[in-house]
Amino acid sequence: MKKLHTFITAAMIGGSLSLVSGCENENTALPLSLKSEALPLSGEHGVQLSESNWLHYGPESTVTLSSKSGDILDRKPFHGEYMAQGHDKQGAFVLAIDQTGKPTLIRVGKADSLTIKQGEKVETPLEGMCLYQPKGGNTQAFLMDETGMAHQVLIKENASSITFDALRSFPLPPGAEYCSVHNDTDQLFVSEERIGVWRYSARAESEVSRSVVELVAPYGALEENAGPLSIVGDTLVIAEVGTANLHTKLITEDKTLDGERYQLSGNVKIENLSVSFLDQPNEKNLIALDDETSGLVSFNLPISQVTAATSSITNIPAVGETEPVASRGDAADDPAIWVNPNQAENSRILGTNKKRGLYVYDLSGAQLQELLVDRVNNVDVRQGFTLKGQAADIAAASQRDRSAIALFHIHPDTGLVTTANEISTGLSDVYGMCMYQGKEDRMYVYINDEDGRYEQWEITDSSQGWDGTLVRSFAVSSQPEGCTTDEKQHRLFVGEENKALWTLGAEPVDSTSMEMIAETGGMLKADIEGMEVYQTDNKSILVVSSQGNDSYVLFEANAPYTYLGRFRVDLNAQLGIDGASETDGLSVTSANLGPDYPKGMLVVQDGRNLLPMETQNFKLVSWETIEQALNL
């Protein structure tokens, strides 16, 4: 009979916590035995670099490159602690901290020689560290200090030194000493002594929250303690510090699955772990420090159980950003792009501040206009219309204070935006909206209510100005927001935030029956937010904000709406621009906007504006980079 326990650690400091109900483990199966082999290598840290090269060092031992038999190939006058492993275009490397607190990057250069680069002293004494290398992103490190804080830093490597740029800091549980990152799913794993192992998001843009991976008995499978962690493929290896016990967990995007239990031979008491850089088909070599003998031991871990359980998300750097909005908190929401027909480089970005009004930016992100029109939430733009019979472009926004459609005149040559008028709707709490230029160039606005209702309004021009006529109504079953249209196919796409992405005909005479494109829980993580179609002569791609995991998902905009890939907007270390998180609205164009955006631009709202920490803004991405990264 299993006894049910609900476990909440009293050690939680800050952030949010995912609670777990666990069962007392009565599994009596014996752990699998792994043979360990003592190595003739000095130091507390060691790793296999290749068939013939092993790197090792410690506080009392100089960094040495050796053969497995112990023959010295190179040695440098460095003594250090910790071992954070990484691999980049230059090959394998190790990050360590020397005895004075300086971060140190160690590589193997030509002719089996060691190269060492150091940075400025880390002022706070550390307890541990690990590396994070997101796909397509920048190398980062998590530094765990003695005060119980984690400091996430960006590592920049120069010709002769390295630097750390701070990204964020957040609290860890007391006794946190070991960590490891699964790069493909952007998950940080942290051991809390005598309690268990926790999972965090490794993304600097993400909310600080944690969930349980495994707990110490009687609440979980760890017999005595939590300790050193390593990643082998898609498997998390958990060692119980001071014992010979090992546990494995299969890593997926949303959770970990139980693996095998192992025990090292030879009365080993594990103090730290490292994973071989050498590719091996069915097993992986690991090195542990044996606290019993203060020597390094080697063992092979079977990896046949490792499967393609994950699908990594590509990171694409932002190349521009707008000035921050004037309001604090959750303020910036939705952008739109106006393309200058005469000089594309002088195009404009419109963005809402849902606490204040509408902003207009140039392509460098500089604010040009602020229209104080109260709480406008979503905005969209169409070009090639008229106002009082004169050529004009039009923008529309959802006006939450008055449950109306707010209309704006855009000068078709200069992009100057001015207020026009508002059209009252039959909705009680308007939220999202989008525009559609339909058959015979008729102009429409779709606007929705938080209760799920949609209204389709036709916007007409006369000598008196713009007016609106309600032409269709329909509803989804729960709260919507984002919507967009494919004007070639006359399709409307709508997002039901916590349920699904839908499509239906865009014309007022079309059926309101909806076809599901994708549900939340797979590639789309609730909330489904902003969306728009990237369209050229030969392709139509639907871009959707998957707010729940800070990503953007691409589908073909034509049936059968095939999934094309997904990505995140990452920080740009060279330009000092952070990435994007918790995106509400987005806008995209395929127009050539000049040398920086030859195939168009994606603009996304950023829920956390870092580097430095400021109010929210909008991030700019080159579509050419997206196309190349996802092989579109």
Please tell me the total number of domains. Answer: 2
* End-to-end CA span: 54 Å
Sequence of strands across the biggest β-sheet: 2-21-20-19-18
Shape: elongated
Helix content: under 10%
- The chain-level mean pLDDT equals 92
Uncertain residue ranges: 1-15, 18-27, 305-309
Give the beta-strand count: 53
Pick out its properties.
single chain, 632 residues, mainly beta, Neuraminidase, 5-stranded mixed sheet, 1 helix, 53% strand, disordered N terminus
Q: Describe it for me?
A:
The protein is mostly beta strands. It folds into two domains: 37-302, Neuraminidase (6 Propeller); 314-629, 6 Propeller (Neuraminidase), CATH 2.120.10. The protein is 1% helix and 53% strand. Strand 18 and strand 19 (187-192) form a beta hairpin.
How do the strands and helices of this protein lay out in sequence?
Elements (H helix, E strand, L loop, with lengths): L3 E4 L8 E3 L1 E4 L8 E3 L2 E2 L6 E4 L5 E4 L5 E4 L5 E5 L3 E9 L2 E8 L4 E6 L5 E5 L7 E7 L7 E6 L3 E9 L4 E10 L4 E7 L4 E6 L3 E6 L7 E7 L13 E4 L2 E5 L5 E7 L4 E9 L5 E6 L7 E8 L4 E8 L11 E4 L2 E2 L10 E7 L9 E6 L3 E5 L5 E5 L4 E12 L2 E10 L4 E7 L6 E8 L5 E8 L5 E7 L3 E10 L2 E11 L4 E7 L4 E6 L3 E6 L9 E5 L8 E8 L4 E7 L4 E6 L6 E8 L15 E4 L11 E6 L10 E6 H7 L3
Parallel strand pairs: 2-21, 4-25, 29-50
Antiparallel strand pairs: 1-3, 5-28, 6-7, 7-8, 8-9, 10-11, 11-12, 12-13, 14-15, 15-16, 16-17, 18-19, 19-20, 20-21, 22-23, 23-24, 24-25, 26-27, 27-28, 30-53, 31-32, 32-33, 33-34, 35-36, 36-37, 37-38, 39-40, 40-41, 41-42, 43-44, 44-45, 45-46, 47-48, 48-49, 49-50, 51-52, 52-53
